[in-house]
Design a protein that fits this description.
The structure holds three protein chains of three kinds.
Chain A (H helix, E strand, L loop, with lengths): L2 H25 L4 H12 L3 H23 L7 H19 L2 H26 L3 H22 L21 H21 L1 H11 L1 H6 L4 H28 L12 H11 L4 H25 L5 H13 L2 H15 L1
Chain B lengths: L1 H30 L7 H19 L2 H25 L4 H24 L14 E3 L2 E3 L1 H19 L1 H11 L1 H6 L4 H28 L10 H11 L4 H29 L4 H22 L17
Antiparallel strand pairs in B: 1-2
Chain C lengths: L3 E9 L5 E10 L4 E5 L6 H8 L7 E6 L2 E3 L4 H6 L2 E4 L11 H12 L5 H15 L14 H14 L4 E5 L7 H16 L3 E6 L2 H7 L2 E6 L2 E7 L5 H9 L17 E11 L5 E11 L2 E6 L6 H9 L4 E8 L2 E2 L5 H7 L1 E4 L3 H4 L6 H6 L3 H4 E2 L2 E2 L1 H14 L16 H13 L5 E5 L7 H16 L3 E6 L2 H7 L2 E6 L2 E7 L5 H8 L7
Parallel strand pairs in C: 3-8, 3-9, 6-7, 7-8, 13-20, 13-21, 16-19, 19-20
Antiparallel strand pairs in C: 1-2, 1-4, 4-5, 9-10, 11-12, 11-14, 14-15, 17-18, 21-22
Helix pairs in contact in C: 3-4, 3-5, 8-18, 14-15
The chains are: A mainly alpha, B mainly alpha, C alpha/beta.
Chain lengths: 329, 302, 500
């Protein structure tokens, strides 16, 4: 797809999203202009916070996009992030070592993703069904573990905290996330492994012709995705929240948001960096919107939802473009 | 003792309604070849709609109806995107969940300024026999399941619908309008899910809260897989999943009553049961799984 | 009154291809009429027009004396025409009865499944053939599935039945069963049009035959009055268009050896039934045959994309029977598939496509050296005279001819020792075709072993030193090309076993 077409698609979907949002706000009695100005002004003003908050989003975006490029649907980013966050937290708590915590978190996410991939490759089970189940199993499992076993005696609704020695400065997590994104970019576009993944996703018949094994692509892409998601969870906990509450609100939804981030970034690691920053601004802005105008932060969910829906119909865009061209003649 | 059993039975019957209705609806949709994972979003939207309608009109049955209609509209949206625009069905479903969640909460705040729940509204009738009570919609859910099974398996239109999900090219060659059939199937699925969502408020909980659905849309999807796309099994599945749902609420209360211990943490483990069960069943029985062959693949007419 | 009368049918496709150049076809009631021709002769196109699937650019059609203008297959069905395709239109996971019911519903929405069952049983009794009504279609052997399709057609009261290469999916015994059924149908007054490229079948089952070649009718005859030889001559006769001077072959040692190869196709049937071949260095072996006789499966098995059930493949003395494709490529094998969608990745650009089978040449410790790849691509573009705005153009924006050049050029530039190429000049204009053919000859003169698979007889005749004729997965004959006359080739391609 040419750069041209990409920009058009992204712009149109953003336009539709914000237009729909404005409509909804207006109907509900809020002032769209006011809401949007707060959203954008406060969402993007604190650079430090913006960038650090976007770090886990970058990871979640990669977790969706890398398998997507290889033709696999990974909506298990949620649980892969959960285990990364949780095991990263525990490692940090028991060892005080942030680097170890990050590694453990990444590996945990990778293992979980690999599980889903193995089910698909060797048992032929659809990865969407498995992912949904695994997401919820781990949600409740972690809720149990945090509320029941690893709770903080002082604040019983929170998990044990990350000790100060293991905390990662907020800008550092952004740098790490960007570094990983760049590493994945390099992997995808400059190594033979990445090339094989891309061909397998675009044209499985051509991949077979070239002798690329489809199973290998599925497993590799999912492993990479899980590592990203797990690392994202660990970064989130070690750099921003320092603990997980017993309803997991701090980490819930980021994996799902990764789908939108990946799509908006056109499944490209560099694009994902930018779409993550954009989305994270929306989320931050949403919180400010609540403070300043009373409209709840879930506005961000609405906007993101429309963006995702709009990006689900690429055919519609090519139809649209063709129609415009025909009429221009 | 008897009281406990009746209590659990009642809660099971309350809990099974949305799980069964949505599952049966989604089975119809998927048998035609379309996958809609936006059930969670439909639950939220229809629950909220029924709350608003009931609040302003005082009539919970109207609320039920409008909730159903909202579900149908959601089905229309998904149908247009999936069938006519040939969009990616999974992505559209994921997006819809976010969107519906956002709109429901935005509207909640806009209308009632509180955060987290709406005021209580009138509920539809509940049938009670001492300690044992259930909603008439439980009966409706079971009837819908039976009717859907009979329709899909025993009628010509059901045969045509199933053909769309197995081999749309062959179906088209035999005169079936695949686009139209898939579209209607998606709308019907949405409508049934909408009914289930509306029921959550006006038939059971009595008010709209942020957690009114709490993943039930996904349990319904699990039920679809668990039932092997058979509406009769979806009724059984609804009861089983409903049972565990009820258990996970009931047992902590009971234990607290008996021993004074609060086991909110452990109750989370109960909630994993429907998902673990589905995973195990799907992983083990997958060989005999009757997933519609053309599920999720957009049909493009030559 | 004729059953079918098609006059002056012309079909020109939007991209300019002329499929039919004014064809006349007359079919009498109650006869079995054969439609014979090679690939691209226009047989399927003509029938699809008769069946209402496509519209003719010009011409008239009369069915039982009435002029018709079909807008779709449903019009044709209502007029009593039914088509049985090579690829069945049955829902594989439904039972036979459910499929019949579905088909009947479109004609009569009120019919019940019991009525359909009754109708089906009566018809089967009348024609004395059996179809198991309660079995799931995909579990039935292909021959039985075909009978279901025929039954389906008959239940809709078809008076004219069109069968498109029906025996391509049948075993010899099933073929006999089919013929028996067709004779019974003829007795009950049904008209059958039988599309085929198999001469023996024409002689065995048809009353009259129309021979098509390159969109024109070259002969109509009463089957009893023509021999297979006559038919073969009509089918393949051509003026040789281009003369390419070929040096005499100097074959060296055997570089590719195939022994008793058995390969299954996607349906699980045997596509290759004990194929044995040898290709020597400095030699072009051409595999001639009508499409669908196992060529693709053979090529894929040799390339390593398809599993060999039995037999042995030896490359440069090494047994490669169980080696994956990329390993074979590294050993000096190159394969150009017959489908550009397989050989190229349409959404990727030229450079990325060149990398597809050249990964080992442009990679160093897992890193792709894009500069090297670009150079390689540049060389291909230059040597094969591909006109492109830039090397970064996505391949899907190139013309079919240019795409073909890149696909072929990419393999040639690897200087393989053994070169398997399938339909190398499809979609190319005369100039490009000549260029590619000259290049293949050059490779041969450089001592490479070339296996050429083509349904274009001209190409086979021009380029091959030796010819092997493939028919239903078997090599009918394998000999020096001088030993083959056009007539003999036609016979062999049509399945007639001819001794020299």
């Amino acid at each position: 797809m040419s750069r041209h077409e990409v920009i058009i698609e992204v712009s149109i979907s953003l336009l539709i999203a914000f237009a729909t949002g404005a409509l909804v706000l207006a109907i509900l009695g809020f002032n769209p202009g006011e809401v949007y100005s707060v959203l954008f002004k406060y969402g993007y003003s604190n650079l430090n916070y913006l960038l650090s908050k976007s770090a886990p989003y970058i990871m979640a975006g990669l977790a969706f996009s890398i398998p997507a490029i290889a033709g696999v649907f990974n909506i298990g980013g949620e649980s892969q992030l959960y285990v990364g966050a949780f095991l990263g937290l525990l490692t940090a708590y028991y060892t005080g070592n942030p680097i170890l915590a990050l590694i453990v978190g990444a590996l945990a996410g990778g293992a979980l993703a690999l599980f889903i991939a193995l089910l698909r490759v060797y048992r032929g089970i659809n990865e969407v069904i498995t992912a949904i189940m695994v997401n919820w199993i781990f949600y409740y499992l972690l809720a149990y573990l945090i509320a029941g076993k690893f709770y903080n005696p002082q604040y019983s609704h929170e998990s044990v905290p990350v000790p100060p020695s293991a905390r990662v400065p907020s800008l550092a997590i952004f740098v790490i996330a960007v570094a990983v994104a760049l590493a994945y970019y390099y992997l995808l576009y400059f190594t033979d492994l990445g090339y094989k993944l891309r061909v397998s996703g675009i044209s499985p018949a051509s991949a077979r012709y070239a002798g690329f094994e489809p199973a290998k692509s599925v497993l590799t892409s999912m492993l990479l995705a899980g590592i990203a998601a797990g690392l994202g969870g660990a970064l989130l906990v070690l750099g921003i929240t320092y603990s997980i509450d017993d309803t997991l609100t701090a980490i819930y939804g980021i994996g799902f948001m990764g789908i939108g981030i990946g799509l908006l970034g056109r499944n490209h690691p560099i694009g994902i960096i930018f779409s993550s920053i954009f989305m994270s601004g929306l989320v931050i802005g949403g919180q400010w919107v609540e403070l300043k105008t009373g409209a709840p932060p879930e506005l961000a969910d609405t906007l993101i939802g429309v963006i995702v829906i709009a990006l689900a119909v690429p055919y519609a865009y090519s139809m649209l473009v063709r129609k415009i061209r025909r009429e221009a003649k | 003792m008897i009281g406990d059993i009746l209590n659990i039975l009642s809660n099971t019957l309350f809990s099974m309604v949305p799980l069964t209705l949505a599952a049966v609806g989604e089975i119809i949709t998927e048998k035609a070849g379309v996958v809609n994972i936006g059930l969670e979003g439909i639950f939220m939207l229809s629950a909220f709609t029924s709350t608003v309608v009931t609040f302003y009109t005082g009539n919970p049955y109207l609320g039920l109806l409008l909730g159903l209609l909202v579900g149908a509209l959601a089905g229309v949206l998904h149908g247009v995107i999936s069938v006519y625009l040939k969009g990616d069905q999974i992505i559209a479903g994921v997006g819809f969940n976010s969107f519906a969640y956002g709109i429901s909460l935005l509207s909640l705040v806009a209308l009632w300024h509180g955060h987290g729940s709406s005021p209580r509204v009138n509920k539809i009738v509940t049938l009670s026999f001492g300690d044992f009570s259930f909603s008439p919609l439980a009966v409706v859910a079971i009837l819908v399941g039976i009717l859907a099974w009979w329709w899909l398996e025993k009628t010509p239109s059901g045969l045509k619908l199933r053909a769309c999900g197995e081999d749309p090219k062959a179906a088209e060659a035999m005169g079936v309008n695949v686009y139209r059939t898939r579209f209607y199937a998606t709308v019907i699925g949405g409508a049934l899910t909408g009914l289930g969502g509306a029921y959550l408020v006006v038939g059971w909980i009595g008010q709209f809260t942020k957690f009114i659905s709490a993943g039930r849309g996904f349990i319904a999807l699990a039920n679809v897989a668990f039932s092997n796309w058979n509406p009769l099994m979806a009724i059984v599945g609804g009861l089983i999943f409903g049972f565990f749902d009820a258990l996970s609420i009931y047992i902590p209360i009971k234990i607290q009553g008996m021993t004074g211990r609060v086991i909110t943490a452990e109750s989370n483990l109960f909630r994993t049961i429907p998902y673990v069960a589905t995973l195990v069943i799907v992983a083990i029985i997958m060989k005999k799984v009757k997933t519609p062959r053309a599920l999720g693949k957009p049909y493009i007419k030559e | 009154m004729h059953a079918v009368e098609m006059r002056d049918i012309v079909k020109v496709y939007p991209d300019g291809v002329v499929a039919l150049k004014g064809v006349n076809l007359t079919v009498e009631q109650g006869e079995i009429h054969g439609l014979l021709g090679e690939n691209g002769a226009g047989k399927s196109t003509l029938m699809r027009i008769l069946y209402g699937e496509i519209k003719p650019t010009r011409g008239t059609i009369k069915i039982f004396g009435e002029e018709v203008n079909f807008t779709g297959p449903w019009d044709a069905i209502k007029k009593g025409i039914a088509m049985v395709y090579q690829h069945f239109t049955l829902v594989p996971t439904f039972t036979v009865l459910e499929n019949l019911y579905l088909a009947m519903l479109s004609l009569n929405p009120k019919v019940t499944i019991d009525e359909v069952e009754k109708m089906a049983k009566e018809k089967m009794k009348e024609l004395n053939f059996e179809v198991p009504l309660d079995e799931v279609v995909e579990e039935l052997p292909v021959g039985v599935q075909q009978r279901v399709e025929i039954l389906k057609a008959l239940l809709s009261n078809a008076k004219i039945l069109i069968l498109d290469e029906p025996t391509s999916v049948l075993t010899p015994i099933e073929t006999e069963d089919l013929f028996r059924t067709l004779r019974k149908l003829k007795e009950s007054g049904i008209t059958v049009i039988f599309i085929t490229h198999k001469l023996r079948e024409v002689k065995e089952i048809t009353d009259r035959v129309t021979v098509l070649r390159r969109g024109e009718v070259v002969g109509v005859a009463e089957t009893s009055k023509v021999s297979e030889r006559d038919l073969a001559r009509m089918m393949v006769q051509r003026d040789v268009v281009m003369e390419i001077t070929k040096k005499p072959p100097t074959p060296g040692e055997v570089l590719l050896k195939v022994e008793d190869l058995w390969v299954k196709d996607d349906r699980g049937l045997d596509a290759e039934k004990g194929v044995s071949l040898e290709v020597r260095a400095g030699e072009i072996v051409g595999i001639a045959g009508v499409q669908g006789n196992g060529q693709r499966e053979l090529a894929e098995a040799l390339a390593g994309i398809r599993v060999a059930e039995k037999g042995k493949i030896t490359l440069l003395g090494e047994d490669i029977t169980n080696l994956p494709a990329d390993e074979r490529y590294k050993l000096g094998l190159a394969y150009v598939p017959d489908s550009r969608k397989v050989g190229l990745v349409y959404d990727m650009n030229i450079v990325e496509n060149v990398v597809l089978t050249n990964l080992d040449r442009v990679t160093s410790t897992r890193r792709i050296l894009w500069r090297k790849a670009s150079e390689l691509a540049g060389r291909i573009v230059k040597e094969f005279e591909v006109l492109v705005p830039s090397l970064n153009t996505p391949v899907k924006h190139l013309s079919g001819g240019n795409q073909q050049k890149i696909m072929v050029g990419r393999e040639i530039i690897r200087e393989p020792k053994v070169f398997i190429v399938s339909e190398p000049t499809q979609g190319l204009d005369v100039g490009a075709t000549e260029f590619i053919r000259k290049t293949i000859l050059k490779l041969r003169d450089e001592g490479k072993a070339i296996l050429l698979i083509s349904t274009d007889l001209d190409e086979i005749l021009q380029l091959s030193d030796k010819i092997a004729v493939i028919y239903e997965g078997r090599i009918m004959a394998f000999d020096k090309s001088e030993e083959f006359t056009l007539e003999k080739l036609g016979l062999l391609m049509g399945g007639v076993n001819v001794k020299a």
